[in-house]
## 1
Amino acid sequence: MILKNQLISAFILTLPLSAAAESRWTMNTEGGITWNVAESGEKHSDHIEMSGKTVSTVLRYGVDDNGNFILNKSLVWPMLRTVPNNTHASLMRRYDWNPLDAVTINGRSVSGEKVRNISLKGTLSVKSDIDQGYYGKYELIRNYFPSTELPALVEMYGIVNKGERPLRVEIGDSRMTSTTDPSTGVTGSFVISGAVDSPGYYVINPGDTLTFSASISAVKKGAPAISVNAGTELNKRQNLVDRLMGTLVLETPDQVIDRMFAFSKIRACESIYETQGGPMHGPGGESYYAAIWANDQAEYINPYFPFTGYDYGNASALNSFRHFARFMNDEMKPIPSSIVAEGLDIWNGVGDRGDAAMIAHGASRYALAKGDINEARELWNLIEWCLKYCKGKLNKEGVVESDTDELENRFESGDANLCTSSLYYDALISASYLARDLGIKDWKKYQSEAASLRKNIEKYFGKEIGGFDTYAYYDGNDKLRAWICIPLAMGINDRATQTLDALFSPKLWTENGLLTEEGDRTFWDRSTLYALRGAYTVGETKRATDFLHDYSATRLLGEHVPYAIEAWPEGSQRHLSAESGLYGRIITEGLFGIRPTGLKSFSLTPHLPTGWDHMNLRHIRAFGSDFDIEVKRINGNKISVNIIEGSKKKSYKTVSGNTINIKL
């Protein structure tokens, strides 16, 4: 057995990394990414989701065989509720409505387009060249984005005269209005409107530019129509994007990882909706809005929000935990998996998914990272209840039973799964730190319970699977599963080397990350993101960084960009929001090894990759502060670490992978 595993490990370490597909996109100097269509000369299509507080849009865009820009606009209005008012009951429509169809230039329609480039940075921007000979030569610029607060998709157009004669432009009064069937809406009919803001006749002299805009919006019937000032809305959108990209800033020698991290904050933070039940972070994907889940929100993204410094994100996190707390009960019935319809209903269609462990993990980490003692006191009751619930679900072997896991019976999870027990373990550790800072006398009991649970996880789940000394995901599992990465992310390193060998072996790893199960074709980014974080957490820095770079290059610059995705084939690789939060946690909790240990303290385990001389994380807004972490290589594996908090600076000299305890 020892010889067999040594041979497997040696084989894996010599495998070439899964090469990212040849990059279609490049990073531009404005902090975004650009597809230079004129250089590639290929037709291609893709989709991206962008969101504001009252609208979300999925833009399906591309370039056809003739070089024309193609676009289908999918719009979701989460607070315009449809019947039945369930998880998916947001008003949704797809449109090909194109304001340019009503535009003529020197008496001719816009035609003969050759798209030059398409760029992304919180907006979708398109630049095209049009040469109609005697009838005009001009550049056409398009820009699409959701309003930050209004229920509207905003479209901006620019026509730049590149010829030697004036362009005479007629912009038609293009409009479309649709009133929905009142029987399909919770409050009756909705009115959807598309309109151009400035129809009329214009002359563009050589070198000059004409700009105009359009929008698609929706309101309840009888409500005032939406008035959109496109310039104001563009400024608000750009200010939001700049704000998100300007805090929690990653600086490393790997520009691909830096840019992917910056982009991930946009998608992670933008998808929050101003519902009647308060701000609710939603996954998106034309399915999941005005609702919260124990995994996507409580477990994945809420612990990340304090690091970003985004107040609205923190408000959504606290609001979600308050909603879950409504369902605590003396009978110890499970908390619903999801609270939907702006907080008016629930979904628990597959029973207990280990939701209490998800909530306890997320709420305790959020409370610690937020650093607000009043919020911590409020959340303690929920955390304590969830821990008590999990303790009551321990089986005779001492691991947590649940009806299923977050994949909701898509794949077998047995009576007790590795994910639920691992999350419960981490929640116990975090709860001990929080209880100590709250002055709870018996706080050490949570550490004792965590130690016992860790032993039980090893006894119950520790198995040889597929030739690797790793974990069976559940009792009776005989195929490698992606979720064997979960213990690593929670700091359980008992089987770290062989588990990583299994994860990064051809049995599970593909150019799109981890397969959910050995021999299957399905992949979910969430498991890949957990695995990369876990690899750093247990000190496998080189492998983690190599695979992280490949993954980032594929997602940021490949064929489907620019964010982490949900899954395939399910959902057609939707840009669900919380996955981008998981990407961010690879950096904060993995690469830098930040582990909250109190309301104003954390342990720091920086993993400076070989070949990097530095890595910095600036404007970290966690623990009620605003501070920087600077890591610099001194010599070999020796590093210097600076913690800069305002005018205060603390310096340390240590070895990459060693832990430093920090108190702000």
## 2
Amino acid sequence: MNRKLLRSVREYKRESFLTPVFVLLEVLMEVLIPLLMANIIDVGIMEGDMGYIIRMGVLLVVMAILALALGAKAGQLAAIGSAGYAKNLRHDIFYKIQDFSFGNIDRFSTPGLVTRLTTDITNVQMAYMFSIRLLSRAPIMIVLSLIMTLTISVPIAIMMLITIPVLGGVLIFIAKKAHPHFIKVFDEYDILNNTVQENVNAARVVKAYVREEHENEKFGRISTVVFKLFTKAEKIVAWNNPVMQFTMYAVVLVMVLVGGESIINGSMLTGELTSVIVYAIQILMSLMMVSFVFVMIMIAEASTDRITEVLDEVPEMEDAEDAITEVPNGDIDFEHVDFSYSGKGGNLSLKDVNLHIKSGQIIGIIGGTGSAKSTLVQLIPRLYDVTEGSVKVGGIDVRRYSLKSLRDQVSVVLQKNVLFTGTIYENIRWGDENASDEEVRRVCRLAQADGFIEEFPGKYDTMIVEGGNNVSGGQKQRLCIARALLKKPKILILDDSTSAVDTRTDALIRQAFREEIPDTTKIIIAQRISSVEDADMIIVMDNGEINGIGTSEELLKTNKIYREVYESQVKGGADNE
């Protein structure tokens, strides 16, 4: 088991330590039981001593009950220890993911992270539980049973000593042959989870295009791949049982042959042969347990590697020891900024960007698809770090701020608006969990969301279902804007966040911004000219570079891209009326 992962056992070390202790006591009881049975046969029955039989019988029942109680306690402790270990491990991975930058997250697919938090951790949990219980039980049982066998019959003990490594080697060989197939299975699980997640999230699109049959076929293909891989692995592992059974019966037959001869010549009693057979079965069953646990560990090893990848991932962004916690104002400066999603040496998404924005200004950004508008603004709250150059907020490089302090003062409403399961109040309060009801209502009025909220039967206590699918696109955008405003940020970024609202509502939102939050720097990315036309400054992006900067009037005179967009939207709209 990976040492890094075992650190997550933490407060469950007690249960993990006590489990083998109770297993040891349980095994001691089980090893003594065959000895008592032999005495009952050889002394009580052979000599006709009913009193002895009753005394030994009572003792036998007591030991059986003790073995049962100790085994139950060991199982309980193993379950608590393994479940606690899985809980801590899940906690550690989830908290690690929270520290990831967008760059870190980009290296792991969402389904891949989900599989690690669910299936992979379950595999590790099961392997851990079986390891601390069965894997500790098997060696103790084998050693003690061999010692007891040795005291009864040396030839049979020697035979068992030869059988154990041979059978153990065969079982380990079978487990190792199955291991590569289990590794492939979990990679396919990621694809399977991605298919399911994509289908569920896009259920409306699937139904709108009547593509259910196509989706069923796609799911069927990947499900069949998982089935075939598991079948290959299980076919190999399936040899465990017949090999075990064959060995067990072969050993028992040889023991009966050797023991029968010993009974005839008087060197062994009938009860002793019975106990030796029981010890042999205990040894062979223990070996079977070892092979079973070994298979579980092999499966868990593949999961362990995948979990370790996440835990070993180094967050690209960490606070410096002397990180600044106060953002003075909403000034923004880009100084010779280059950025590549692939890091240094990769294709540049932003090239030598120089930009200076004063606190409180309204900035509009337009540009074609792929012009890096979103990339530009994502550098401000440090969702990504620049490849070259620097981005400053309030005159200070963003890398010198603590991430929490910076992001508390830079509210971003991203292109993909996300609402969470809960009431409207709870969703808005993501911006400030301690905000009063009146503060929530105020930001909703600024975002032009108060009107439609009041029309819901539950008003602000209306439940938002998973993904916000019970509100329209425009309503979702306005709720997300309200959530961002509740933070009272010094910088507010709207990344095409009013595309689903009508032009009148869009204008009312911008008017509220200008009148109610004049000191907040407002950056609006939009496809509609009307959304940025009255901005203090408009930035035209093209192919990762700033193609033009100025007011709407200035850009109409000097910038070809802006003029073409303006004419296609404003004049084209007028001609169609």
